[in-house]
Amino acid sequence: MSIKAKTAVATGDGKFIIDTVTVAEPKADEVLVKIKAAGLCHTDYDSLTWGKPIVMGHEGAGVVETVGAAVKDFAEGDQVILNWATPCMHCFQCQEGNQHICENNSPVVAGGNGHTPGHAHLEGTQWQGKAIERSFNLGTLSEYALVKVSALVKVSEENLNFSAAAIVSCGVMTGYGSVVNAAELVAGSTSVVLGCGGVGLNAINACAISGAHRIIAIDINPNKLELAKQFGATDIILADKDDIGLNKAAKEVEKLLGGRLADYAFECTAIPALGAAPLAMVRNAGTAVQVSGIEEEITIDMRLFEWDKIYMNPLYGKCRPQIDFPKLMGLYKKGDLLLDQMITKEYKLDQLEAAFADMLKGKNAKGVVVFD
């Protein structure tokens, strides 16, 4: 039996509408999830320009409604976090432990803006009488989402804050994982985080959890720098918009650290002109991490690599969902991972336009759409 679901639909022409879609029963390896909360990030806004109708949303948490015949590890009523980087567990990269860059299912690696073999059967969601894709194989800005079982991670916590759980599966994982999984930050080290939006704040939080001795936050927005202190920044630098490549800020970092640059630097601005900036922040043999996912041509002065510096461009914090999500939820329960503090405002689905406006104006560290 199909279900009618109130949904945010990107119409393919730069706009979206709140409309009703029809969601089918899950096939053998699929699960129908009642969405309780969906995080918002710039990728959701970008999906308006993908040139095709799509069910929006790629961060979410909810409760299992129905499972397919072959699903053994999930049952009706289970609390789950939805994960867009669904691993196939059979390709070369999955076998190497790189589940986040699955060669078959990843909507980033395999392409298609969300339609890969990791996508539940396409006809399972219908809009205006036609099958419609779901953003990043999920489509969480909807009352119900039909997904592959590989997209789910179970959460057993009582009285779960679904808003907090919903944001784990993109910005939190990206910021935290870039520090812990990719850079493998060593306790007692020094770090710099460029950009104090949602991803940057999670990188700062991860540096603090990992035991960094000094955590220097850099941004052009003084309000974001104040927020960075709450997430663990020990020092802040208010950057100048005219500081090309943040070279002046790098000199301030060197001064703060007693004449030597940082051990690690994390670029979280998504500004192409700052793609090489973390290299200017780290000492010889330091590690620079391009966290924000810049995907265009930039020019880099190769002298920034002198000497022995490492430059990394990890995807999604090298996420292994079944391993990393329980760790993150454990850190949240302990009080170390500041998910509640990350959520600036909650919205209803009908308020999505206002939520996007707040996000684009930089008002929110993180906005979340909540469902009844």
From TrEMBL:
Highest taxon listed in the record's lineage:
Bacteria
Task: Supply the alphabetized keyword list.
Answer: Metal-binding, NAD, Oxidoreductase, Zinc
- List the SMART domains: PKS_ER
Q: Tell me the InterPro entries matching this sequence.
A: ADH-like_C (IPR013149), ADH-like_N (IPR013154), ADH_Zn_CS (IPR002328), ER (IPR020843), GroES-like_sf (IPR011032), NAD(P)-bd_dom_sf (IPR036291)
Give an example GO cellular component term for this record.
cytosol
Q: Which GO MF terms are attached to this record? A: S-(hydroxymethyl)glutathione dehydrogenase [NAD(P)+] activity; zinc ion binding
Gene Ontology terms: biological process: formaldehyde catabolic process
Instruction: Pinpoint the Enoyl reductase (ER) domain residues.
Output: 12-369
> What is the required cofactor set for this protein?
Zn(2+)
Specify whether Methyltransferase is a keyword of the entry.
no
- Which family, according to the similarity comment? Belongs to the zinc-containing alcohol dehydrogenase family.
**Full protein name:** Zn-dependent alcohol dehydrogenase
